[in-house]
Amino acid sequence: MSKSSKSKPPAAPAAKADDSTKDLVLRAKVGDRSAENEIVRRSLPRLRRFAHGRLPPAVRNGSDTEDIVQDSLLHTLQRLPGFDPARPGGLQAYLRVALQNKVKDAVRRRARFGSLGDVAEPVDRRPSPYDAVKEKELAARQEAVFKQLRPSDRALLVARIELGYDYAQIARLFGKPSPDAARVAVHRALRRAVDAAK
To answer: Please, what is the average pLDDT of the chain?
Structure first.
């Protein structure tokens, strides 16, 4: 064996599909191309789904959405040395923000060169798959907290928050002597809900 082959550091193993995102980011920070490629492979489909419908038609031509998705990924990869991968889901959140910023830039660029009408609103107003999952998680957490409350507290919070009743209406419905008494009862129920959520 020659001396030159002994002095070479061992090559890092190629990134695998089961590597954690945190490990991939740490490896990509030190220039591991296979880690960068795995980040792109994992992130591209999610980012495409998130991008769907966010680019207004007046700005779109050809493959602009795909270009913006790829630009967002490249931009993120260039900024990985300053990125902290400690928070779970942080990379995906960072990628979504980068994509939203690229969409805003495209809209601004297009606005400079002609009238777009109402271009600020995306065509697809449905929540993204990510937003839909987050909404379901939030609803499940709220339901779990509500189950821990007394029925009277649940009823007060539903009347105030979900139905939008004012304190005078709540006072009449719940037999409270005044709107102020209803307000105090709602605030106490809300405090118990906050405590139950901890």
So the answer is: 76
